[in-house]
Here is the input.
Amino acid sequence: MALELTIRCATLTSATEPNGVLLYSTLRDDNLGEILFAINQKSMVKADEDGVRGLSKGGIRRLYLDSERAYDLKNCCLFPMPRSKEGKRILDRVFQNKADLIVKVKVLLVKNV
Here is the structure.
């Protein structure tokens, strides 16, 4: 599965980003513009994997991650890291303050193996 991924902080907003400060976007932070993800391969925390299960090409889903689930992703080394210093600084601040996240997923490709 190829996913376009956007992660925003639900509890950290600004005048220009009232829906949450952008932490990570495959369009901005990834050379390919997508993340490859395999269901049942432990490439994502199970609860979040269930959130994308059943989506077909073009499908979009928003997942709300409370701070505990966000920490699970970070501790499992499955949380994508922003490239910019500013993005990394904001991400550190988010995890220090136990913030909740909103993950928007768009399916670009589904391949059954």
